Amino acid sequence: xxxxxxxxxxxxxxxxxxxxxxxxxxxxxxxxxxxxxxxxxxxxxxxxxxxxxxxxxxxxxxxxxxxxxxxxxxxxxxxxxxxxxxxxxxxxxxxxxxxxxxxxxxxxxxxxxxxxxxxxxxxxxxxxxxxxxxxxxxxxxxxxxxxxxxxxxxxxxxxxxxxxxxxxxxxxxxxxxxxxxxxxxxxxxxxxxxxxxxxxxxxxxxxxxxxxxxxxxxxxxxxxxxxxxxxxxxxxxxxxxxxxxxxxxxxxxxxxxxxxxxxxxxxxxxxxxxxxxxxxxxxxxxxxxxxxxxxxxxxxxxxxxxxxxxxxxxxxxxxxxxxxxxxxxxxxxxxxxxxxxxxxxxxxxxxxxxxxxxxxxxx
Length: 363
Prior knowledge:
With 363 residues, the protein is α+β, with helices and mostly antiparallel strands. It contains 8 helices and 20 strands.
């Protein structure tokens, strides 16, 4: 609980300071049209996204804090986005587990302030300089495409190391899943219907278009999501690199949801008569939503996997994102000479059941 409070405090501190340092602008003035933003991207006028001459400059503003300006070209304008970056906040993100699914990096609630600032600023600038509505998503993606591509092995030493949006911006880039996660987070905040598209060795995003353009798309719940590449440039909506055209694609929706990781350790004292087992369970919510009315069930399961020699259940609790909850099941008993295993399950109001178990043990 203390770690979560510290994390929230860091986010709020950087947010309050960051408001003063968040000011994108364009060097070239444009028409002053102020059209409303459509929620689905019109596909009839899609064109290649061509960011070029990207540049990043950085200036120290305080110990452990820097002001970084990203500059890139799009649709005849030179765009600039300035963010305040904080070393301690970056370290807080790095300390968070990677044992969560890709969509939960994009829907993480702790960087809402950052994503909202970027989305609102890009929308405001697009209106100020008369950028056509159907080109607003291209402005977002062109910014992200201007970031550096770096493999996970080169940047982190791990084969797979998905990043939170703040980390991708702090690191000035990442690989395909990092830029896709960042793109989806910003475009969702802008009001677009987007998903992640996972391939065996690649990731991109899918965007719902109205009217629908030509190109590669994937159906999910009666909607068509058009492929959009977030690495490199010159990719049209619906255009898919040749090396991925025959690969299977999984559509991953992005929404707020809880996800728990379970762990436990058990100690057993036994005699010929019986065994007495204490089980210490740790549940951690690595999702992006509160795990509501969550209950932990602990049993000493018999070898037929139906009966339980002994069992106990916790009271229901609410577990916030990044918060942990511990439950100790003391004094569970199993008859002497019997085989059992420790079985732990978490059940919640809005939670898919999660379970873990030990190896079989005979006493």
